[in-house]
Amino acid sequence: MNAIETPFATVLLPGLACDAGMWQAQQVALGARFAPCVSDVHTRADSIAGMAMTLLADHPGELVLIGASMGGRVALEAARLAPHRVRGLALLGSTARADTDALRAVRLQAIEMFEAGEGDDVLEANVWFVFDRSAWDDQPLLDRYLAMVRRAGTPQLVRQNRAMVAAPDGAPGLREIRCPTLVVCGEGDGVTPPECSREIAAGIAGAQLHLLPDCGHMLTMEKPQRVNALLLDWLSRLS
Q1: Of 46, 59, 182, 220, whose Cβ has the fewest other Cβ atoms within 10 Å?
Q2: Which of 1, 34, 2 is nearest to 235 (CA)?
Q3: What SS3 string covers 166-217?
Q4: How many Cβ atoms sit within 10 Å of the Cβ of residue 109?
């Protein structure tokens, strides 16, 4: 059982190319009360559906899923597959949409560069895309992010991008979700813009939406205190 004997397991789902490093502040803030664990299913399956099925197999019983970016897609799929087991969803900087043709082309080009040994160029350029301008002078933060995505390694970067390229449009299924849902997005998110989070919040009955100013796509790292406060309040009401 969790630290305060909650009837559910709290699982943190990283985004593409990310790991527990992106949840460092949340593990500390939530740990004493909710004992969250960080999932690695995105490293063990080749599709969003496969990741969701692996997640459900890893964690029997009721779940509260907190997913960032691609992790949010996995959380939504798990809720679709097992609505009776998912007690709540927190979706941070995520989207229910399938990739546009333009985004699919960008991912496929990145895959080619990864496979050609030019992955570092892609990762370094991506830094300016995933963070809000207000974070660009925070070199320790940028270094932490780069170290994390480099840990993923080329095979995982390729597999996870392919999984997103193949992911179907999940927006029509949002109305079927009945569990309490928290939606959070940075106002400066250039990867999954606020309109994606607004669409999720509008599609799920009763969902809460919070947009964070001066924040980009990596909101758990950019605005950890604000994200922690939102999660603690939401989890406390769930339990």
Answers
A1: 46
A2: 34
A3: HCCCCHHHHHHCCCCEEEEEECCCCCCCHHHHHHHHHHCCCCEEEEECCCCC
A4: 11
